[in-house]
Amino acid sequence: MTTQIYNGNILIPGGKWIKGGSVVIKDSTIAEIYSHSRVIENIDKTVNAGGGYIMPGGIDLHVHGGGGRDFMEASVDAFTTAINVHRRHGTTSMFPTISSATGQNIRQAAQVCAWLMEDAESGVLGLHLEGPYFVPSMAGGQIPENIRIPSPMEYIPIIEDFPCIKRWDAAPELPGADDFARYITEKGVIAGLAHTKANYNDIVHAYESGYTLATHFYNAMTTSHKNGIYKHEGTVEAVYLMDGINVEVIADGIHVPPIILKLIHKFKTKGRMCLITDALAITESPDGSSFDPRVVVENGVCKLRDGSAIAGSCATMDRLIRTAVIDAGLPLEDVSRMVSETPGLIMGVYDRKGSICKRKDADIIIMDKNLNLTHVFAMGKEVDLSPVV
């Protein structure tokens, strides 16, 4: 199957645009990129981008579910339902995320993830474990009874048994959290810092131990605060000062206001900043149900029913792009790279994902001039964007 997308502005590596260009897809890969919109010979299907933007498909580093299903359910049906919800909004690849869970639940979810990763068209690139090694008072929407301190008796066998695990988050100030990070990073797993009260010295030590990614930056971590009459730095300020620590940000305009998105972009820049959904099962849930009964949506905000915390989000990839460009005023080329190129580089999949380049996987989104999503291609196949009824 050969498809030509034409009459669009193509974002290519380096943040440059080919205006009025076209992309040819052969089966599951990008075959050619042209600086013209003439339809070439032997094309099976043509797609007119209508003068809009042709960009790499989104890679979501942090997403818990959708369509009423959560990856913690650890079933193929739950995984595929959530994946399909987000694919219709421009997420062509993802790292399904498991919140703080029991060891048995982690193993069950990892088995499903490993099975799906055998199919390149699944869009699953690896498993992300958010917890359970967190500071209890910073739990946020995590399940509190599952939170505990790192135990090598638990994490070593899990890592050994499941190479599908590509990232694991913890609070770096916990006892044993430095050994945990050293061990998992030696195995090629990204160590993220999350749900933490770490100060500057803690963060310096964390970086030296292997933590290189700040999970949902600004959320579930401290900022500048007073102890008595004296000001102290928080985790946020410490992360800003560590050039080697990347950040992921829930760019829904709620978890992090647009003005702070601008601030993060200014100091961390597009090469160190990823945009994530952190979407929960309640995202596009057909009947409004959620895996976690504590979670409700009020005025478009996911929060715990008791009002004690904002939970994850009900955002989608296309919403992240619009929020960052329209509300925060960031350049579209930077925003696109923060949902594709930068996550691809951080997670080690940029050789095949994250940019529009010959011989890479044909994961492509098209947005019109108002940044409405019009087409999604995942591994060369066009995705039906119709909502599931």
What does this structure look like?
This protein has 389 residues and is an alpha/beta fold. The protein has two domains: 2-55 and 358-382, Urease, subunit C, domain 1 (Roll); 58-346, Metal-dependent hydrolases (TIM Barrel, Alpha-Beta Barrel), CATH 3.20.20. The protein is built from ten helices and 22 strands. The chain has helices spanning 76-87, 103-117, 152-161, 177-186, 200-209, 235-241, 258-268, 317-327, 332-338, 341-346; strands at residues 2-12, 16-26, 29-34, 45-48, 53-56, 58-63, 65-66, 69-70, 91-98, 127-133, 165-170, 190-193, 211-214, 225-227, 230-232, 246-250, 273-276, 295-298, 301-304, 364-367, 373-378, 381-382. Strands 1, 2, 3, 4, 5, 20, 21 and 22 form an eight-stranded mixed β-sheet that branches. It has an eight-stranded parallel β-sheet with strand order 6-9-10-11-12-13-16-17. Strands 7-8 form a two-stranded antiparallel ribbon. Helix 3 links the parallel strand 10 and strand 11. Helix 5 packs across helix 6 (235-241). It is globular and about 70 Å long.
Provide a quick synopsis of the model.
This protein is of the alpha/beta class and 389 residues long. The protein is built from ten helices and 22 strands.
Features:
single chain, 389 residues, alpha/beta, Urease, subunit C, domain 1, TIM Barrel, 2 domains, 8-stranded parallel sheet, 10 helices, 22 strands, 25% helix, 28% strand, globular
